[in-house]
Amino acid sequence: MKFYEILEQHKSQIAEKWLKAVIETYPGDAGKFLFENKNQFGNPIGYTFSKRLPEILDELINPTEPQKLNIAIDDLMKIRAVQEFTPSEAVGFFFLLKKIIRKEYHHDENAQMLFREVLEFESRIDQAVSLAFDIYVGLKEKIYEIKAGETKAQYGKMVERLNKKYGD
Amino acid sequence: MSLKMKPEELAQTISYKPPKKHWMDVRVEYKKGSYNYAGNPESLKYVHQPNPRKWQPYEENWKLPENWKEIILEGFRERIDKFRSLKLFMDICVRCGACADKCHFFIGSGDPKNMPVLRAELLRAVYRKEFTLAGKLMAKMAGATELTFDVLKEWFYYFYQCTQCRRCSVFCPYGIDTAEITFIARELMNLIGVNIDWVMTPVANSHRTGNHLGIQPHGFKDSIEFARDDLEDLTGIRVEIPINKKGAEILFVIPSADYFAEPHYYTLLGYMALFHEIGLDFTFSTYASEGGNFGSFVSHELMKVLNAKIYAEAKRLKVKWILGGECGHMWRILHQYMDTLNGPADFLEVPKSPITRTVFENTRSTKMVHITEFTADLIKNNKIKLDKSRNDHWHATFHDSCNPARGMGLLEEPRYILKSVLNNFTEMPDNTIREQTFCCGSGAGLGTEENFEMRMRGGFPRANAVKYVAENNGVNLLTCICAIDKATLPPLLQYWVPGVEVGGIHELVGNALVMKGENERKTDLRNNPSPGKEDI
Ligand code: SF4
Ligand code: SF4
After folding, report:
1. What is the pLDDT of residues B43-81, one digit of tens each?
2. Whose CA is nearest to atom 3 of ligand 2?
3. Could you tell me if B149 lies within 8 Å of chain A, comparing CB atoms?
4. I want to staple B492 with a disulfide (CB 3.0 to 4.6 A). Which of A108, B36, B40, B459 is the partner?
C-alpha cells in the first residue's frame, strides 16, 4: 500500500492523536478540559483545534487549494500568538504531527518502501510550518497596529476638539 | 530567538510538555504581554497610599517594606474579622470544580492557575497556613502555604489576571464570589504598595478633578460644547446642555470616556438628543464628571473616596435624583456598596420620571436610575418617536457587560430598547449572554497596552461568540453599555473578528430618534451616510 493511502486510511486516528498531543502542550489539568469539553462557545480553544487539525491534515495528505490550509492555520495561530508561548512553541505543534507519523506509520512494512513519499509528506509539513510562522509574524505586526489605533481612539475626540480650538 | 529560524532548527528548541515539577509548584515567570506596569509613585502619594516608589513587576527587587509579610498578614486578619463573606469564602470551598472552566482567562489561555478555584486557592493556601489549626500543624496535607516573595509574585500575576467579572460565581453551588476574593487580594497587596499604574493614576486624577484623565471644569465644559456643536451639524438642532445648574431636577453622571473617546462619544450625542427632545430638566456636574471608579479595583477605601462625589454633587446642586449613563462598574458599586459606603441618600427623592410619572421603585434606597431603565420606560409609554430604518445599516447583537448584567441584574431593558430602535438584532448563543455573559477580558484595570496579549486571550470566548453571529447572521455591530467595553472591544474584534464595530445603545437611540424641527438626517451620529442616503 502506498504511504498516502495508509495516511488516508488512518486519517481520523492520526488527527485524534495529534489533537491530544497539541492539548498536552497546555499545563496540568487544562488539557483534560480542553480535550473533553466539546462546546463551541464554552471551550473555543478545544473546539477550534478539533475542527481545524483534521482539516489541515486532510489538506496535507490531499492538497486541494492553498487557501483552505491558510484559513485553518490562521485560526489556530491567532490563538497561539496571544498565549504564553515562545514563537517556536506557538508554531511547534506541527512537529508533533511528524513525531506521531514517524512513530506509528514509518514502520509499516509497505510504507518503508515508499521512502520518497514519506520525505515528500514531511516536507509538506515543513511548508505548513513556514506558513504558520509567516502568519504568526503577521499577527504580531497586526497587534502593534491595533495597539496604536487603540490609543488614538481613546483620546480621539479630545485631540479633535483641541485641534479645532487651538489649531490653525 | 531569531524569527528567521528554519523549521528543523525550530523543532529542536521546543519543549512540548509543561515542566516536570508539579505545575502548582512551578514559579511564576513574568511573561511580556501578561502583566501590568507598577503604580506611579506620584499617583500613590497623591492619594496617600503606602510605599510609593519606582519599581516594576519584572524586576527582582520590588522594594518592599522590610516587614511586608507582617503587614499583609495583619491586614488579612483584620479583613477576615471585618468581612464575614471573606471568612466564608475561605472556609467553604469544597473544590467541586464547578467554577473551574468558567473563567474566560482560563478558557482563553489554558493556564490552570486561571481556574477560579485555583486563583482563590492562592489566597486560601496562605489563609490555611496562618489562620487555621490544621494548616499550622500539617501544612502540606491541609494545602497550606507560607507567604513568601514567590507567593506574592503569583498573587500579583494572577489577581491582576482576573477582571472581577463574577462569571465563576454564577456556577458555584455555594455562591462563592471569586471576584470578591480578588478584591481582597488586591487590597492586601496595596498595603505594601503593590498595585498597577493603569489603576492608580486614574484614581489620583479622579480624586483631583473628578475624572480619570484629570480634565478640569473648563475642559469638561469645552468637551460638552464641542459635542453640542457636532450634534447641531448633524441634526440642525442646537440643544442646551446645563452644567453645574443648581436646582435642576436630575443630576446626570456619565463615564468620562463618553466625552473624549470613540465610539463612546456617539452615545453622548445620543443622550443629548434624547434629553432635548423630551425637555428633561437635568444637569451635568464638572466634579461628578466620571462614573468610573478605579478605586474599586484596588481597595474598598479608595472606592469609597471616589464614589463620594456622586452624592456630594447631588447635594450641592440640590437635585431631586440621579440618572446614570452607559457605565459598567459604576453600577456594580451602586448596587452592592454605594448605600452603605456613602449613603443614605435621604436628602434625595425617590426617582420619578418627569415625562411618564413612573416611579422607579427599585431605586428607592440609592436614588439613582440607569439610563436604559429610563429610556425603556419612555419607549414603553410612547413618549418618543423612533424611526428604526435609520439604523438599517446595522445588524446588532448585544454584549451584556459584566457589571450591569451580573452585578445588578440589568438584562431586559437594553434589549427592549434595541428592539425598538433597530430592525436587525440577533442574540449570541445562550451560554455567552445574560448571566453567563463572557467578559471583554479587559475590565478591573486590565485594559492596558502592556498586557495586550492577555486581553486578547481573555476576550477570546466573547469574540468567538461574536464571530459566530457575524458569520452566520451578518451581525456587524456589537452594542454594549459600558465604557471599558467600548474602549476594549474594538481592538478585541479587530484581532478576532475584523469588520464588526462596537457601539452604545444610546447611539442607536440617537440615530432613530425623530426630533421636532430636525433637518433631514443625511448621516448617522458617526457622520456616516444614513441608509438610503449613500449617494447624496
Ligand atoms: S471573577 Fe471572572 S475573571 Fe475572576 S476568576 Fe471569576 S470568572 Fe475569572
Ligand atoms: S464552584 Fe465554588 S465550591 Fe466548587 S470549586 Fe469553585 S469556588 Fe469551590
Report:
1. 999 999 999 999 999 999 999 999 999 999 999 999 999
2. B93
3. no
4. B459
